[in-house]
Design brief:
The protein is an all-alpha fold. The protein contains three helices and no strands. It is elongated, with a radius of gyration of 22 Å.
Length: about 80
């Protein structure tokens, strides 16, 4: 839309700047959305005082990970986990 309104030959040097700003804005918005959805962020302390206790061992918390957390085995024996509940 922006480039359609101006002649291509006139302000072509502005295109990399607009591209960089667009990528930076997209990454900033994505990071904010991920930060709000992260399991260790507390927005309401009364509803969820300890959110880090509700993370299962197979839940992926990192943004990018080469591992498939659903296929990982638990490092703690199941008997120990049952005794904690």
């Amino acid at each position: 839309m922006f480039f359609a309104s101006m002649k291509l030959g006139d302000k072509l040097a502005v295109a990399p700047l607009i591209g960089c700003i667009s990528v930076a804005a997209t990454l900033a918005v994505g990071s904010c959305i991920r930060g709000l959805r992260a399991p260790d962020v507390i927005l309401s302390r009364s509803r969820n005082p300890t959110p880090w206790n509700q993370i299962s061992p197979t839940q992926q918390v990192k943004m990018f990970s080469p591992y498939d957390y659903s296929k990982l085995e638990s490092a703690v024996p199941p008997e120990s986990l049952e005794s904690l509940k």
